[in-house]
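Exercise: predict the fold of this chain.
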Amino acid sequence: QHNLLKKQYLLNKILWGVLYVFLCITLSILIKKYINKDYPLISLYITLFLLGFSSNIDNRCRLIPDIITLPLLLVGFLNAVLCENSHISSTLIISPLNSIFSSLGAYILCSSLALIFYFKIPYAFGGGDVKLLTSLASFTGFENLGKILIISFIIMVGYCGIKKEKFAPLAPFIFSSFILWIFGEIIFEIIR
């Protein structure tokens, strides 16, 4: 039984790695072709990796460590600084000032949501979710974070309805919503 668990764990890690590489390659091709070839893809790769990692940890342990959220916050700020003078016109790009204020606004909004949820359903929306969404806001901006949060809740409610559970870890739904948002933004850029 121990060998079976080791094989399943290894298969899980390989599957996550293949998914990550596939996402990176697909997004690289689409962004370089339809958005701008000067877009700093490394910040997107790191964001995807950290969100995927936090998703995996939250799904298994129901916590999101600071070692993930703090680098994600820094990557978002760095992305805003790198793209500030690059003349890339896209909703994937926000200014450094927008990045800072989006993170502050996200912290206030998410902390308020966590307090509301705490009195209705304790532990449904925790501190790790607040930190993760605050960090993600530095990359996406406040308006786009709202879209991601709404999509996350819709997917999570559907998942909980199908599985007949009261609540589920939020990070996997944030991760999937972020991917949907990126592909949605690329599709809107293609249509324009």
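Check your answer against the key: The CA atoms of residues 169 and 188 lie 30 Å apart.
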